[in-house]
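yo

u said u wanted the structure for the complex thing, so here. seqs first:
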Amino acid sequence: MKSTLDHAALAEEFNKDEERVDWHDGALWWIRQKRDRSAHQTPQWEELREAASAIKSNVISNLHDYLIQFEENLKKNGVKVYWASDAEEHNQIVYSILKAKEIKQMVKSKSMLTEECHLNEFLEERGIEVINSDLGEYIQQIDNEPPSHIVLPCIHKRKEEIGELFHEHLGTEKGLSDPTLLTRVARKHLRNVFLTRRAALTGVNFAVAETGEYVVCTNEGNADMGAHLSEVQIASMGLEKIIPERKHLGVFLRLLARSAIGQPITIYSSHYKKPRPGQEMHLILVDKGRSNLLARPDFRESLKCIKCGGCMNTCPVYRKSGGLSYHNTISGPIGAILAPNLDMKKHADLPFASTLCGSCSNVCPVKIPIHDQLYKWRQEIVKQGYSASRKTFSMKAMALTLSSPEIYKTAGKTGRWLLNNAPFAINNKFNPWYKQRDMPDSSQQSFGEWYAKNGSKK
Amino acid sequence: MSTREKILAAVKKNQPPLSALPDISVFKVHEEDVVKKYSEMFAGIGGLLVSAGSLETVKDLVRKDFDQSKRILSNIPALSDVAEISDSDADPHTLEDVELAIIEARLAVAENGAVWLTEDVMGHRVLPYIAQHLAVIVREDSIVSTMHDAYAKIATEDYGFGGFIGGPSKTADIEQALVLGAHGPLSMTVYLIK
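structre next:
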């Protein structure tokens, strides 16, 4: 992580460039609207969400047996299976697979899990070069920044900034910023990467227990280019990616791309089952906090997530603060409920980066009650003593005020008097509420006073 | 205890009581005209759709629309006049210069425009991804309404690799501007035949 600042401080940085904030906000809202159009055109959309959620409930409740079944089928299909408790163990496994084949370069398609594990850094320290092949992730990698969105990794960047990066790293003409031309340059460069790498690593969108196959979804075709040209194919997946049967893919593939970007299906939905002759296939099952999350009844439903990014596109806080301000690989509302499970102290600020408007829960294709979980995490965080001290103090002051009618009346009166006669006492730089806002004029009397005067009248 | 056993024990201990799978046979869409719906959806995602009618016409169209001096590869023996028939033993890296790949779909899906290909019809797993342009032959009677119908047809078939492909490769990673031809084919044509 580049920074130790909290979400509010990082968001404030992002908010300095108002024009960029408006553009970012608009770009994501446009995607949300595409999602809506696509959802409304799909018959039985709500029933589909319900079914997806129920399938994932079943997965969570029977994960032990599904994992064993999946492993058995992988082995039958000729895939080598590994288990990893944490990032370190996962990274070591990848390293040992590559080392056994004396491979020094690997191409990787999108995988949030390996981002979370900081696999690239781990391998680079051991002399292995990794190139991210998803265009957005490639751009983030050459800029030495993590992805700011799980589906649209560089959504916060302007094309001129990308042009500048390409000029520096790929030798394009200075000032070139046309998206088509830049994409062509990356295509040429990365094609050569695909053709020369002996190892390719992909993430996993869905893993079918019944058959031992796993499905990887992309629009660019980068996972397939890497995998089918490799002699060593590695897939890393979190335990929760399991689905019971092949036919359940029908439900999830109908929901995923529509929820993500309003597309009827990703261009590529690839079902990997067996290695091709002469190729090795390896699959790593990663726990990294998942089994722990299963033990938290209030939060375990977040394991249903299919990483569509829909909750980010709709979130008013995400749209106006940018993904990087969440200082976590998975940002936005879903990141804010997943991160505290891994490290409550480090991510104590994230559940507060929300208005609790509930829009995230309304678009979630697997019906995770995201905003309820945000609210519950806040309670958990305060209980454990990890909330910001200013917040704890003001909450205590609020509790005292609300529990005593006398203090409440006096406080109300004082507040109204100050707002009307000395607004600078409240509206000043020490009060963050006023940074981008103004208060409406305060009324002259409280409701209590008004009621005492008018309540008895007919 | 090995990592595997540790993880499995923790999962077993922490997972909630069993909750039943839902009935997904309720998802039925009765599409009046699947060919029409398919054509609309496929065009909507940037694909080119041609009602060719027969493989003979496909040959004429390939001659007309693609540069014959470049490498055209197919696994369909009937197209040997216009395409080199792929050798399944060849190293996939040798397909780097393929201009056009012509593949026959196992089925196609009206609700999203995608075709379903398995490695036996691809000839090479990498072919539909590495070619500069992709052409897919779709028999009209192989078009189904939804993904549910597609998986009902695929059923328990055993394959090493299979994929849905729903158009030309694309990206919108640079300022959400749509660019066709990210890493895979720059264009995708579907030839409908009876």
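Chain B touches chain A through 74 residues (CB under 8 Å). The longest strand of chain B covers residues 98-104.
cya
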